[in-house]
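Re-run with default settings, no changes from the original entry. Doing this only to confirm the output is reproducible before filing.
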Amino acid sequence: MQLTGRAVLGTLVLLAALGAMGAAVVACSTDRSKQPPESRRAVTADPSGSSEFLKAVTPKGILEHERRFQAIAEAHGNTRAAGTPGYRESREYVAKRLRRAGYSVRVQSFKFPFFRVLAPLKMARVSPDPHTYELREDFAPMRYSGSGDVTAELQPVDISPSPGGEPGPSTSGCEEPDFTGFDEGDIAFLQRGTCSFEEKAKNAEGAGASAALIFNRGEENKTQTIRGTLGKPGVTIPVLGTSFAVGEDLVRMTHGRDVTVRIFASTVSETREASNVIADTEEGREDQTVVVGAHLDSVPEGPGINDNGSGSATVLEIAEEMSELGVEPRNRVRFAFWGAEELGLFGSKYYVARLDERQLGDLAVYLNFDMIASPNYIRYIYGSGKVREVFENFFATRDLKVMTVNLKGRSDHGPFAAEGIPVGGLFSGAEGRKTGEQAEVYGGEAGVAYDGCYHEACDDVGNLSTKALEQLSDGAAYATYMFAREERR
């Protein structure tokens, strides 16, 4: 990745140079006075100085945090989603542990658009020929849809082409005149195209529609059930997306006869508050800050113990062991726990957007750890050249094969990369399915998702691979140590 307006990362400290430092143990960069002397351990000499640190960061310690996250979720409706009591307690747990370890901790609050489905959605054709549609296969809620239990006539709004015709440009519902003559209380039947789902839904609501149904276009890659978003809270009527097949069938039915449909949606769509937890070492070069982060929130549907309890618990364990061992960083280390990642990277975006030019220039690298204990795991690495090399070199010393993946902006590294900051991270796979070739290299089961509980209620402590957690947490600890101790000009 090209670095815009930033200095390229300096060369990592030569192993010989680090080794020459001997076995000197330096004072902890955090306040050690709160810890009993017998609890403080010293990092002994080795070629890179990292082996004792890696031994200290263990699955046992990480799982201690994971079990706490699980208990928090169980006490709060099986979720730790941003904007919920489960998230707030997770945040307090992390902040308390970091303060106890002696870090300078701040909680950064921000507003974000919250959305949650409270009960299973329903869609059915009441007449003619009653038929119940299948959630996900036939229809899905638009994110930030409103609530309601509506049974009403379906009224097409500027739909073209007619059934069986070739798909063409659609402006259905994009303009207020499209709703001229619309019967208040009907369900607006709309087609994807030209303007946003939000514009279509707001125009429908303004025309007096009791709900809105938007079906897909029909071109290649636009036939499946729409899983879209209205962008933000504001629309109060239920808004669903459907597949092209469902829409085409309903269009045919509306020719010459009335079609009555029932739509049921129970949702929460509103603005809420969440927060990031930021913890800094007191020493180390501020102008070469190494940020090590993971998102702390789960999806509303589950406790998020792999996604992303595994990453946030690992970052917390790394921070605690840095303090415990008295590892003094040459470069300031900032441990970050992001809120509302699952709803759109809101926490990390908020953090980066509020950095001025000097503060952005002080960030040397961002390391991101999101899902590192998937049960049918693979060892993925990603990031900028120098950061990726650190991971590659580490796993090569363990004789462990890795694959490079491009996650683009899918996780919290995205906002940093967009500002030209070198990024990198580890990932053990999500909803994708393991190939036969991957199963030969990494073990596990071909044709099965890396994490079958991805974004589901079953993403609990029983959903973790401790083997993946051990290997990838070692990689995370190694990269943190090397960039923290890197000597720069």
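The CA atoms of residues 52 and 479 lie 14 Å apart. The mean pLDDT is 89.
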